[in-house]
Amino acid sequence: MGPVLSLRDVHLTLQGNAGPVAILRGISLDVHRGETLGLVGPSGSGKSSLLMLMGGLERATGGTVQALGHDMTALDEDALARFRRGRMGVVFQSFHLIPTMTALENVATPLELAGQSDAFDRAADELRAVGLGARMDHYPAQMSGGEQQRVALARAAAPRPAILLADEPTGNLDGTTGEAIMDSLFGLRDRHGATLVLVTHASDLALRCDRVMRLRDGRIEGEDRQQQAAQ
Amino acid sequence: MTPGWRIARRELRGGLSGFWIFLLCLTLGVGAIAAVGSVRAALESGLARQGSVLLGGDAALRLTYRLATDAERDWMADHARQVSEVVDFRSMAVVGEDRALTQVKGIDDAWPLRGQARFEPPLTVAEVLAGRDGLPGAAMDPLLIDRLGLRIGDRFRLGVQDFVLTAALTREPDALSGSFGLGPRTLVATRALADSGLLSPGTLFESSYRLTLRPGDSLDGLRAEATQYFDAGMRWRDSRRGAPGVETFVERLGSFLVLVGLAGLAVGGVGVSAAVRSYLDAKTPVIATLKTLGAEGRTIFAIYFLQIGALTLLGVLAGLALGGLAPLAAAPWLQSRLPIPAEFTLHIAPLAEAGAYGILTALIFTLLPLARVERVRAAALFRGIGADARTWPRKRHLAALAAAVLALIGTAASLASLPWLALSVAGGVVAALAALWLAAQGLRALARRLARQPALRGRPVLRLAVAAVGNPREGVAAVVLSLGLGLSVLATVGQIDANMRRAIAAELPDQAPSFFFIDIQPDQLAGVLDRLDGDPGVGAVDTAPSLRGIVTAINDIPARDWGDHWVLRGDRGVSHAAAPPPGTELTAGEWWPEDYAGPPLISFGADEAAEIGLSLGDRVTVNILGRDITGTVANLRRLDFRSGGIGFVMIFDSAALAGAPQTHIATVHTDPASEAAILRDIGAAFPNVTAIRVRDVADRVAEAMGALASATSLAALAVLATGFVVLIGAAAAGERARVFEVAVLKTLGATRATVLASFALRSALMGAAAGLVAVLVAALSAWAILTQVMELDYRFAPGSALAVIAGGVLATLAAGLVFALRPLSARPARVLRAQE
Q1: Closest alpha carbon within chain A to B291
Q2: Nearest-CA distance from A216 to chain B in Å?
Q3: pLDDT computed for residue B510 by the predictor
Q4: How confident is the model at residue B618 (pLDDT cuts 50, 70, 90)?
Q5: CB pairs under 8 A between A and B
Q6: Contact B468, B742 (CB under 8 A)
Q7: Could you write out the DSSP letters of every residue in A141-169?
Q8: Taking the domain A33-58+79-230, which CATH number applies?
């Protein structure tokens, strides 16, 4: 079986005020089904950009990005949006919940967009799974940061995506809450058997992944398997 | 229910807090149009329902210059249930040495056939006319009573007939059916005028026979029979359009004010657009999140289109409630001040019109900001970028925008009484918006350049202000567009008003005569000229024979088939001359020999001939006193009505009209000191001769135009009020950014005075720019209207322009400084910590 995500010689150059800035310079990697991959590196190394390329949220300026056998670089914005439905879940550091929607509605939205008739029932199950069964009708502003991130996790996991992408999901949380979020994230991954790509600064979180890729200046600096990383 | 609609409903839970400018702009714009339309509909409905009262009967047959013959009277008696005869003419009411122009109405015992006249003291018509001490009675307009210093029971004279004033005429039911009167009304019995010398052959008077229908008769049937029986000089009017002049005036003024209201809605549209942009900017993370979750561009567009649509409906409904109910609330006040009957109720048509304008305007001004949401990329979540403003909107959005613009202009043009006026106003608004947008872009670019100039270094107040004007986030475009368009409308009214007042007040007396004397009988002409010739205070005197005639046919084709030109509409002054009158300027053809005695020839006004489509050699048939005279156009003459002199559109050769009963008209230039003596002497020697002071006429016209200018200014102020709301919206939207800006500046050592001065300067700069462009737009519009439509000269009126620029500066200063108060009082530490 081929890789779930496959990147070949991927470049990303953005146009800044002072001229073009090379964010990613020739990244090639494969991620396999069910695998967990940690992306680590200093600020500005390009790890978040790499994650967004994998999710089709950013468009590569060179090379190819394939997800589940589809060439993401050939799809337009709307086709990418349709592709993500039910296949990819994304979790952000800043949660990005929709403030005018309750927790339940936030989680149900991707299911509704995918045309699921039981969107709200499934969303409720997902919220109960992350321990927020009692907070379904609360708005984001009425919840703590940890609770908001758990809603975001539930929202990403609700459509049972094949790929879960998480961009520093604990970056805005204290240590204990962050720990609980990571438990939830890995719990969801284990339950649904999704492939997980996780961007993090925290080496202890990266250690929970099967594989850790180190980035620096837009290039892959090195790669550690779980056993090596632990050492 | 689609996901788009469900998500839109959830998004609306955010409330209306960010939308009060949006709603206020729509409510004000739609409300103003709905109110103007409702008042117009109330007046039109009142005029339609009161048609027979306004006319004084079910139908009226009008004759010029003569009373009906006995045979005609018999015909009317046979064909109507009731007949009432009314004569109408200008004359002088004389009290001792004092004399005043008056419009005399001679009535019979049957008047009024419809409606009721009111007098003070409350007498019946018969009691008023009965008089006292052997003298016939009369009622006068209270204005005229005041002017002549009369009291009830006092005597006055018309021609050589004495009358006693028995009452003040407080309500004349058929006052609006006549033509534009130059003097206030005097009501007398026609039989009492028999010895006044005022209804001699050739005198300018009009008779009107009001008829009521017999049971079973129809207006159309009676009209057909009357047209067949009477000569072509008879004019028919019936209760279906009892006061056509007033109806047309109401319709046109209403249409014009609705168009001014549309300009206001366009100003509101700028605010609506800015509000939607600002809302959608704030929604960028939500849009990007929805994209991340799999929402397509169309779904996102639908989500926000539905939201803005719902808010638009709310704003439009609020505007309709305001515009529909405000005239109802003001009905008692309006009714007591209007000379026209009105039916104040909820009129659906004008509300539907205003609603359609509101929805289309909102669509036009929100479509492009809404279209941009499709371009928001999911990457906005982590890169802090919104939609790329430079990308060209999708074709379907541009097509929808074009369709909405066409629908709006098409609706306005089809509903306006003068489609060309609607199209011109629409063109003007679009051109003004384009000019203002360009000016805003230019100002921003200039400010950006200026802010980098070394000359501004070391002058932080100025540099900060200029840099802020150059900042795309400062909302310069919204301020300049909204305030500028409002000021443009006001400045245009100001420029036109100033020029017309100047034309009347300053330029008229330079060229115009001091008096017109009318109704000079042929045997009185020598006497009048003798009196004038011997007076050293008298300058030029012109005289001409004067008759009234109706153009009935041109080249044997009925005149009505030649269009609705004013020369063909009613009866016109006609003269005759052997030699060209002094100052005649022929543009085509030649004047006839002085002893010409062949078939009738006509000298026609050149512009009027061109407008009607007449050329040399065409045959014009004019009905004068019931007789058709056909003349051939021998030459065309340039006519300048602005000079106020004698200006007949049609002059026949003398032989053609020599036998017709006629009077003479004279214009006299005098110095002011001689005026009173001339009036007194001619009035005493020739009591039937009426003197009209040109200055009085000019004052009446200026008064009427002043009222028009006031109505238009009021509408322009409503436009400006909407502009001010947009301005406040822009200032309020910038408040949060200013809080941060002030905090940083204070941290860097700026005092509050420095910051305040910089804020004031940036506001003043934007206001001045809006005012300047508005004055340019107004000068151009006023020039076009005055020179192309009104055929008047245009001269820039600096006073009004300065006031507009000052108004622009003050408005932006006020809005800017009010919203600077919170930023100035905020503590920097709190603000900066909150940003982290």
Answers
A1: A81
A2: 19
A3: 62
A4: very high
A5: 83
A6: no
A7: GGS-HHHHHHHHHHHHHTT--SEEEEEST
A8: 3.40.50.300
